[in-house]
Amino acid sequence: MPTNYRRTFPSDLDGGGPLGDYIRPREFLDADEDEIIARVTAVFVNDTRRLPANAGKDDPCFHEPHWGHSTGLLRGTLDIDAVDALPERFRVGLFAGNESYRVVCRPNFIKDPKLRLAAARIAIKLAYPAPVPHVDAPSGEANELDLLMVEGSPEVNGPGHVFFARDARTLAMLGTVSPPSRETPRTLLTPRYWPSLVAFAKQIRRAMAYAGRPPATTTGWAGKSYYSLGPFALGDGAMKFCIRPRQTHEIPPVDAAKGDSALRHRAAMEAWVAAGKDAVFDLCVQLATPECIPAPGAGDPPKEVMAAEYCDLQWDEAASPYVKVGTLIFPASPQADLSTEFPWSPLQFNAWNTLPSMAPLGQTFRARRHAHKAHAEVRLKHLYGTEPGAMVGEAPF
Question: What are the backbone angles phi and psi of residue 77, rounded to the nearest 5°?
Fold first, then answer.
């Protein structure tokens, strides 16, 4: 039986209960979720297996479509220096107190040839003093914590602040369309799938409109804002997080449709480091409140479930602004630049490599946990001839 790609919720579904002025998120698991996640994972893994074996190992300029290329690897520090900006009940996990942590940062630029969409991403691995649940560690734990973010507009409620797909069902549906499969006609011609396709198309159009104009095309990695896209727990509440630059980083305009934009962004990062200009970002957190979550529409669950399960949901940043909780610094020095030692990054990142009090929320993130792990393993083996997990706990902090 083909899977119904439009998610439904019980009409009598309750919310997560009161939490004062904040949302207490509630997750909802579908009965067929494991099957949906397996389909999503297979799409990502099979897409990589179609590429030539050892393509990354034999070609230093190689970058995988949809997943991009490392434009650098830098050492730095994250100072959690403003936990007082959070209500006391949310001073948990990484934000339990003001502390300083060593980090490595992997700027990354992706170009999706099918969507004609290009975007910068940042993956940060943090040295944590205690074992943290870790997807890729054989023991299930490691003394490192991951923060993953994607480029977005710095304006309030701007493009790139949310994920392009609401849930894993949408991701599975898109997998039947691109690359086309035998289910493509059923997906495109069945009316019950149209609302999900329309919502997806709106997100992509908005992202493409931003990605194709300044400042997205004239700003280098150190001058961009990056967003976590989806919801995370923060104690018994929910949050999103982002980093915002304190400096500008102008580069010549980059046309994603022409040439290798990933390599041009890598050159821009190297030039920035060579110029001796440290990169400084503010780490900011947005808390889920009843005011920032839109009112449920027809077929929507309560706000508490929407906040956890709708990964494409814009939390109104005018009603609940991002607040600064930390400072991220990457010194522009030869000691901080690991790009020559690691021209491509053998590190594995997963949003689930984090403390339980900060765990990702929702079906999209539950799918990404498995899809990202499986994809990281196949790309390391198939494209780079490297054993997965070799760098777990060995990050060059």
Answer: -135, 145
